[in-house]
C-alpha cells in the first residue's frame, strides 16, 4: 500500500485509503464520490493489487474515449508490455495482465467463456452509474451477475442518492461489498450567476440552498429592462478572462450552438493565446492531420477550425470528426486552449477538467421535448470545474436569461445527488446466451437476482402502503356520499347514484374516444391527399370563406409522413404536413411550372404566386376548418341511458353526482394500485418466457415440452454471437439468405439499415433510389422480414424491434466503393439524412462492428467473404482516423 501511495504527488484521501484496504482484504467495494474527487485511484489500486498477486485485472469503461485515455494512463505507469486495450474495433495486447476495455467487450467474453477469464482476479467498473443508461445500462448488470464469484469487483460511481440500495444489491449478488461514500471535493466549487456583465455569487452564504439577494435584485432589474436572453458569448468569455476564471468548459446543449459560438468569437476577433501558445497549438494541429486527405480537410472546414484553435477556443461535440475531438481534448488538457464550447456528452466522457464551467441554459432537448436539467445532470456538468493540483477553487457559472428563477437555480445547485435506477431487461441475445450457459432454471434465478428485480421487490412494500391509503380514502368518500343521501333523498340508494355517475363517466370517455378517432381518420385523409399530390397540382386550403389557393412546387413520395412544399397565393412558401390542416384540402386544378422550381422554391415563390393568381379554376366557396367530431354509436347508447336514468330527473342531481364521481374515481385508482401489486405482472421472468416462446416458434430454442428442458439450437448458437440492438432481425436476415451474393459495398449498405438512426432529417428532396438492383432487393427483403418480426413481437407482448432506416444506404455504399467524403455526405442528404463528418464516421464504425460479428456467425461463405472485404473498405481516410473515437 505504501509503495502504491508514494507514486502519487499528493497524500491519499481517507476514502481512497479505506477503499484500497477493502480491496487488499479481498472484498468488493462500491465508491460513490463527486466528479474530480479521485475515485479512479481506487481502480488503479485494484490494478496494482492484481499485478502484485500474480492475477489479472480488467478495467472497464462505458465509452471508447475513456478506454483510450485510461489505456494511455496505465501504459505510462506500467509499460506497453503489461497493458492491453480492447474496444471492439481496436485490439492491442489482449493477453496482457492489465486490459482496458468497454463493458460490452467483457460481457461478450463472459458469454463466450473466454480463456482470458481464467487468470482474472479483479474487475474495475468505472462510471458504474451508466447502469441507468436506457440503451446500454443492461450490459453492466449482465457482467455483474455473470462474473465468477471469486472475482473482486471494484465499482466507481458518481454520487447517487440510493447508494445504500445499490450497495445492498451488490452484497447480495457478489458477496461482501464495502460501501464508501464521500461528498468531499478536493477542489471546492463556487456557484455564480452572470447577469449582464456581472458575475455574482449565486448562493446566500448563510443559507446555501437560497439565492443571494444581490442576484435576485440584478435579475429583477434585467427583467424590467425587457432583456430576453443572457449575456453575449463574447462578453462572457471576456469577463471570465478578466476575472481569472479561464480555462473554461462552456456547455451549450446543441451542436449548432457550439459551432455558432466559435464563429461568433472569430467574427469578434477574440484571441486568448500568447504567440508562443499559438505556435505550439498550430504545430500540434498540423502534425495531427497529416494523414487526412487535403480534399477531406476542405469538407471538414479545417482552415476556420485551425484558426479558432490558434486563438485559444474550439467546439467539442459528437458531430465532429473523432480525430478533431482528440486534438481539442489534448490541447485543452495541456492548458493551451482557454475555452471549449461543448455539449453535455463531454460531461459523461473523458477526464477533461477546467477551472470553470459555464452553463448557458438549464433546459436541454432530450430527443422528444425540452426539459429542465435534473440535479444529477447539473452535478455531472459542474463537476468538471476545479483541477486538482492546479486550482484552489472551481467555478460554476450559470448565465441568466429571462424567466430564470434564481431561487430555483440555487436549489438545483444545492442538490448534489440523484437516484440510480436499473434499466435491465432480457433480450434475444441475452436469452439464448443464458440458456446456453446456465440452462433455463438458473437463467430464471439470475434474472430474479438482477438489480431491476431487487428494486421491484423493494417497492412492493411501498405499493402495499399506497393501497392501504387508497382504501382509507375510498371509505371516507363512501361515508360522505351516504351522509348526503340520508340528508337529501332517504329513498335513494348509493348504488343508484354511483351507477349514474359511472354512466356519465363512460359517456365522457366514449365521446373523447370518438373525437380522437374522428381526428385520426381525417388525419389519414389529409395524409393520403398530400402524398398523392404532384408538382403543379392546385389545391384549395381550408381557410373559411373564399379559401386560398396553393400550388405544389415539390412533391413527397413518403406516404407515411408526407411533406410536400407549396406556394400560396399571397407568396408564402414552405413544406406542409397533415398537422398543418384541420380539414382536407381540395384539389381544384393543375398548372405548369418551370422545371427548376422544385430545386429552389423559395427563390421563385413570388413569380409562382403571381402566376397562380392568374389561373382560372373552380374552387369551393367555403372550406372551413372542421372541429373533430365527438359522437359514435357507443356514445349515443350511453347518452340515452344517462337521460333515462331516474337520477337524471332530480333537480339537485349535480350536488349528489359530485361526491359520487369522487367515489368512482377513487375505486378506479384503487383497482390500478391492486393491478400494480399483482404477482408477476411484467416481471423479468415473464418477459423472458415470452422471448423464449417467440424464439421457440422461430427454432432458435427447443424443448421436450417443459420449460426446464429448453435448449439452444444451432440457429440459436449463431444468434448468441450477434450482440446488437436488432439482434433477432439481423439473425433472420442472415438465416434466410437475403444478404447472400451481395458484394462488399452492397452488404455494408444493407447492414446499415439495422444500425443507422436518422436523428436529423434533411430538408432536401428525399430520393428512394439505391445504387444497384441487388441492393434494392435486399433492402426490400429486410423491410419485409422486419414487418413479420414486428407482428410476431406484438403477438407475444414484447417490445417491437426498431424499424430499419434507409437514410445511410446510398452514402455507405458509395463510401465502401471508394467515393470521397463530400460526395457521400451529399448522398446521405439526398436520402433524407443530414450528417456531419463526425456522424458519418460514427455510423461507419457501428456498421463495421456489426460486419465484424457477421464474419464469425457461421452463416454463408459469401456473406462472410463480403464482410471481410467490406471492413477495410469502410475503414479508410477519416473513418480509419476516427476508429478509436
From TrEMBL:
Any one of the GO CC terms: Ski complex
Keyword Metal-binding listed: no
UniProt-recorded Gene Ontology molecular function terms: ATP binding; helicase activity; hydrolase activity; nucleic acid binding
Coiled coil: none
InterPro entries listed in its UniProt record: AAA+_ATPase, DEAD/DEAH_box_helicase_dom, Helicase_ATP-bd, Helicase_C-like, P-loop_NTPase, RNA-DNA_Helicase, SH3_HelY, Ski2/MTR4_C
Entry's Gene Ontology BP terms: nuclear-transcribed mRNA catabolic process, 3'-5' exonucleolytic nonsense-mediated decay
Domain Helicase ATP-binding: 20-178
Chain ranges of the Helicase C-terminal domain: 232-436
Matches recorded under PROSITE patterns: HELICASE_ATP_BIND_1, HELICASE_CTER
Domain of life: Bacteria
Keywords carried by this UniProt record: ATP-binding, Helicase, Hydrolase, Nucleotide-binding
Region (Disordered): 597-634
Protein name as it appears in the record: ATP-dependent DNA helicase
Organism: Corynebacterium terpenotabidum Y-11
